[in-house]
Amino acid sequence: MARRTPSFVCQNCGAVYGRWQGKCEACGEWNTIAEEDAGGGVAATAPSRSGRKGRPFKLEPLAGETHEAPRHASHIAELDRVTGGGFVRGSVLLVGGDPGIGKSTLLIQAAAAIANAGERAVYISGEEAVAQVRLRADRLGLSRASVELASETSVEDIIATLSQGKTPRLVVIDSIQTMWTDSVESAPGTVTQVRGSAQALIRFAKKSGAAVILVGHVTKDGQIAGPRVVEHMVDAVLSFEGEGAHQFRILRAVKNRFGPTDEIGVFEMTGGGLREVTNPSELFLSERDLGAPGTAVFAGIEGTRPVLVEIQALVAPTTLGTPRRAVVGWDQSRLSMVLAVLEAHCGVKLSGHDVYLNVAGGLRIQEPAADLAAAAALVSSLTGAPLPADAVYFGEISLSGVVRPVAQAAARLKEAQKLGFARAVVPDSARGEAAEPALALSTADNLAGLVAEIAARGPGRSPAKLRRQEA
Ligand code: TYD
Ligand code: MG
Known about the structure:
Blueprint: E1 7-10, E2 16-17, E3 33-36, H1 38-42, E4 71-72, H2 77-83, E5 87-88, E6 92-97, H3 103-116, E7 121-125, H4 130-139, E8 148-151, H5 155-162, E9 170-174, H6 191-208, E10 211-217, H7 229-233, E11 236-241, E12 248-256, E13 264-270, E14 273-276, H8 280-284, E15 295-302, E16 305-317, E17 325-328, H9 332-346, E18 353-359, H10 371-383, E19 391-393, E20 396-397, E21 403-404, H11 409-418, E22 423-426, H12 430-433, E23 440-443, H13 447-457, H14 463-470
Parallel strand pairs: 6-10, 6-11, 7-8, 7-9, 9-10, 15-19, 17-18, 19-22, 22-23
Antiparallel strand pairs: 1-2, 1-3, 4-5, 11-12, 12-13, 13-14, 15-16, 16-18, 20-21
The protein binds thymidine-5'-diphosphate and magnesium ion (MG).
Magnesium ion is lined by residues 103-104, 127, 174.
């Protein structure tokens, strides 16, 4: 019989090596490589050990009857929006986020909502004692909800308990990093344990039809700690984000087998738990510095929902050899691109200036459509000329300085009008799409035109800025 060659598998990303090494070259993690039996599940081509012949099964055509996945809405609208309409039966969700961001709060609220709808909801904490969970629920005014609680870490015990009685609609496991299973030998908290526990819980979900939510901790660089493979195993990965000082929390789907991945849910952390924010624009615009140079309002789209948000820029002469470019809430490389286009095509010299760009309210924008608003804010800050307080901006900027069309112009304009804006600076193409005569559209077909227009407005009422410009 041929000698089995052992293989070494990275427990984080699943890369296979011929010999042991300290660092996985595929994912860069240290001490994640462990020996695995080549026959043990890794090599799918290994001959079946039982000697059983495969059983042929029936293949189905692509066309056929489909059933919408049965869902259970949590009745927390912002959460349902992100999951795509509720928790799918038998699905497993991974919710990641920084410590203290509000994962446990959100999930106890979700469990209580399901329980209040008359369904069975179970909340298992591996981190906090039952009393602590109760205390939080008390604070949230949820102590009367019939959520079943436990403080447990053994996956086998949890599954045995959940298998008794009526199948729960929702099971929250807070957190997957604290769970351990007998089937794996390594210590609790290791990647192998996390993977093994997740596997067992996923099997339970598929078999019983309960929706399972796993809470996952996040490492310093924002990855969900433990094996990346857990992200591949689950049906949806949600990330709960927020900027430390802000009260806003944004729930975002990173992966979703049963729904959209571009929707966001917006919450506000209050003394009484997480409150849904149904109109995010009002929230992100609430602290506007009206008439100050360097602020522009961007009419964006998050998922299917238009969101107006303020973009703030500060351009100041640098004292350093290499000027600083700092950006919060937007893409660093897109900022570099916009700056390069301003320099190359619009005659705006920025090489002697530090540039800071900030998206107000802790929102993170991913759309290229924000280019125009960012450019307007930058030029406004540089020249000290405030932008009109009643104008919104959107449009993508190409490397040649042309303002390109963006999707869903009509929805953006409608939201702007709803919030009392009177003007919009938009790509040429948006003129045809706009059904909002109440909004004065000025089209910018290239960036140079917009820059000239802002510069012509002249410095506004900011004496400090004026002095700096003259110096
Ligand atoms: P928590 O849900 O425990 O965070 P996580 O599970 O993600 O670690 O939330 C902890 C923070 O939320 C804590 O700093 C206090 C704050 N908080 C409120 O502001 N209001 C509340 O009603 C609750 C329950 C928590
Ligand atoms: Mg927690």
